[in-house]
Amino acid sequence: MVLMGAIQLRTAIPGPASKELWRRRKEAVPAGIYNAAPVFIAHSEGAMVEDVDGNRMMVFAGGIGCLNAGHRAPRVLAAVHAVLEIADEEKLPACADELGERFRSRAIYWQSRWPEIGDVRGLGAMQAIELVRDPGSREPAKALAEEVARLCHERGLLVLTAGTYGNVIRLLVPLNILRPQFEEGLDVLEAALVAAFDQQPQSAPGV
Predict the structure, then answer these.
(1) Chain-centroid distance, C-alpha 70
(2) 92-197 domain in CATH 3.90.1150.10?
(3) What is the pLDDT of residues 156-175, one digit of tens each?
(4) Would the pTM of this model clear 0.90, i.e. be above it?
(5) What residues does each domain of the chain span?
(6) Cis bond upstream, residue 14 (ω within 30)
């Protein structure tokens, strides 16, 4: 054991439990653009964290904007608890599922109309359409995604391009959005797709 005041190390870093979790993480989580220490935190307070191996360490590597208040800052915790209470009272998880299902019903129609929409995917209110040059090769269509985003922006709808190849239109809709607003946003996105693909708006049956 290494003791240095606040820092207390019981194992090498990373310890055996963190190593095992790191192995499982690499097997289960897609690789992205990130930089992380191979330790898994069990408890935290202020600038100090304790990992799953019982090592107590000091954090000098907080992400920009996300840890400046320190771990478990009382005012931050109070705000988080208040948000969770609102989420429970207003049934926001169910709202997320409803928004996601409504988006998917529209997006699947778009996919049937434009085969360049290679995939529709998401979870809850976070949804995405992936644009490809050809549905057979699935070659990413980055320029097309950028054009759809530009056309959305021109029409007052802010969307993001995402994905490893920049060919995904990713949506994350506020859970308190009014349903007429949501439908208007979907209409704008469809109009942008029409303009990008074939310039001939059509209406989906029952939409």
Answers:
(1) 23
(2) yes
(3) 999 999 999 999 999 999 99
(4) no
(5) 2-89, 92-197
(6) yes
